[in-house]
Amino acid sequence: MARTLHDLSPRKARPFVAVNCAAIPETLIESEVFGHEKGSFNGRDRAEGRLLRAGRGRNAAAGRDWRNAVGDAAKLLRVLEERKFRRLGARTEMDTDVRVLAAMNRDPQRAVAEGSLRADLYYRLNVFNIAMPPLREHLEDLPPMVETMVSEMNQKHGRKVSGTAASMLDRLMAYSWPGTRANCATRSSGR
Fold first, then answer.
1. How far apart, in Å, do the first and last CA atoms of the chain sit?
2. Any idea what DSSP says for residue 183?
């Protein structure tokens, strides 16, 4: 979904950076998202960062439980409001123009009410909200999805598989497709 939104946006010529923040240790999230300067901590011999770069527009798809990451959330809010950030260990601020797409697999309003999502961050990100139902709620989309995947695999592997056995589609349609509803919110720090 994030890639599609990027590809259909006026920013499509700019880089797209997807980050699974849940897979990054809490101690490294600030460096990974906002970057760090050379020597800012052991083992870092050059300045770098995944999402935000000075003077270059970025698009980011990220998910994170911001309950305990108060400092990181405050920095992200500042990026969205003022289009400025400071790398870990930096003395000066940098300008940026970034679009953030945040996704979670639960109702964000419920997460705010429970205290597991910062309300100020949710309201700042929630400019454009997309609720994505689990596949079990729109099984009519399954056959065209299968066709698309078969076509992509044919192209990737130089094959010419055509069609899908009815029994296979029946099995896919009968599957329970466990999972939860995903909610995405997007916000651009630029104009």
1. 22
2. E
Indicate the residue type of 181: R
Positions in the chain short of pLDDT 50: 53-59, 61-71, 191
Q: With 0.90 as the threshold, say if the pTM is over it.
A: no
Compute CA distances 62 → 2, 19, 26, 118, whole Å: 9, 5, 14, 16
Q: How far apart are CA 35 and CA 53, in angstroms?
A: 8
Give dist(CA 41, CA 89) in Å, integer: 8
Q: Where are the alpha helices (DSSP H) in the chain?
A: 2-7, 29-34, 70-82, 108-114, 119-125, 142-157, 166-174
pLDDT digits (tens, 9 = 90+) for 8-21: 988 888 888 777 77
Distances from the Cα of 79 to the Cα of 4, 54, 143, 158, angstroms: 23, 12, 41, 44
